[in-house]
Amino acid sequence: MKLIQWGCPCYRGLALAVVSITLAHIFEAGAFAIGFWFADKISHIGSFDTDQPMSWMDYFYFSLVNFTTLGRGDITPLGHLRFIGGIEAFVGFLMITASGSYVLQVMSGNPPRVGVKNSS
């Protein structure tokens, strides 16, 4: 009896879920990076404590590190950007936790279904 069948639909669903969730989180971090750029360059409600001017990749790097709650500390927000950074870390924690829960359900073969009523 073979326990692992790589061609079974459950593994395809798992791969699709992981890739979709990863892309969604990258998009979410990118949206926060745009917000950090706007707050720094356009509205001037805060800045970043860095030795060199920030490039787009620096904003995205900071946002991705902050979204995953890693918080390396090599780029430090100043002013009101500290609050936005805290909100991003909180949102990232919630989204990654929810994603982990969803992937666990997909792995168990029982993914949540939207719009399906329970028969009980």
Q: How would you describe the overall organization of this protein?
A:
By secondary structure, the protein is mainly alpha-helical. Helices cover 61% and strands 7% of the residues. It has three helices and two strands, in the order αβαβα. It has helices at residues 9-42, 56-67, 81-107, and strands at 46-49, 76-79. It has a two-stranded antiparallel ribbon. Helix 1 packs across helix 2 and helix 1 (9-42) packs antiparallel against helix 3. The longest helix has 34 residues, at 9-42.
Keywords:
120 residues; mainly alpha; 7% strand; elongated; two-stranded antiparallel ribbon
Précis, in short:
This protein has 3 helices and 2 strands.
Report mean pLDDT, rounded to a whole number: 85
- Give Rg in angstroms: 19 Å
Tell me how many strands there are.
2
Cα end-to-end separation = 34 Å
Helix proportion range: 55-70%
Shape: elongated
Q: What profile does the largest beta sheet have?
A: 2 strands, antiparallel
Cross-sheet strand order for the largest sheet: 1-2
Low-confidence stretches: none
Counting DSSP H or I runs of 4 or more residues, the number of helices is: 3
* Derived structural class: mainly alpha
How much of the sequence lies in strands comes to 5-15%
Question: What order do the SSEs take from the amino end to the carboxyl end, as H and E?
Answer: HEHEH
Record the SSE blueprint.
Elements: H1 9-42, E1 46-49, H2 56-67, E2 76-79, H3 81-107
Antiparallel strand pairs: 1-2
Helix pairs in contact: 1-2, 1-3
